[in-house]
Amino acid sequence: MNNSYVNESIRCTVNQCKNHAQSKDNCALSSILVGTHEHNPTQDQCTDCKSFQMK
Question: Which residue range or ranges hold the DUF1540 domain (predicted)?
């Protein structure tokens, strides 16, 4: 993963993610997949970044 790329459209503060841009609080991917672990999500805590990869 080339983490020198900064996608200004995707903000991210999860430094433990392999896709974190490192130089800024952004993602280094061109797009991400957001999903849920709930049958009927009602709060932001119910959503997940499915593009997350542990460093």
Answer: 10-52
